[in-house]
Amino acid sequence: MAARKARKLRTASGARAAGKARVKARAASKASACVALDIRIESDLWKQKRDIQEKARRAITKAANAAARPMCELAVLLTDDSSIRVINADWRGVDAPTNVLSFPAPESEGERPFLGDIVLAFETIAAEASAEGKPFAHHFAHLCVHGFLHLLGYDHVRKKDADVMEAAERDILRRLRIPDPYG
Questions:
Q1: Among residues of the chain, what percentage have pLDDT more than 90?
Q2: What is the pTM of this model?
Q3: Which fold is adopted by the domain 36-175?
Q4: CA-to-CA separations, 114 to 30, 39, 103, 142, in angstroms, rounded
């Protein structure tokens, strides 16, 4: 009798856990279905980071929802320092690698407007994360959010604008349970 009760409890709790997992999966699917991401890995360096595409998708989806832009489309290129250096020189006149570049698209209409492109460089991100004593995944997520906010028009050239952008980043990263990168 006791064995039968124990088996029923295990079965019931297993069913509840499976049900909760299905609800979470549906919610995650609905959230990410709103943001269409084309993520391309150009450098093999990124392949050493597990679930890197999912980390980018999660950070950008959270940023889009926080910025009230849940229906959008964008492209993300995961590259290396040598490639981003060429892009940086061609587009910004800066002959040096950088961690992230954003290229906002012209305003577009439709149900799911295309916002633009984000380019991220592996070596620079890894070096910065190491120098700052942060997990790579946290720094990467921060830069995905940072790049996304640039697509929306945020900037950090002037102090006032930087304060606004950093506040938005802090809010989104808090939602991702990532510590304040500026604190």
A1: 77
A2: 0.81
A3: Collagenase (Catalytic Domain) (3.40.390)
A4: 19, 14, 11, 21
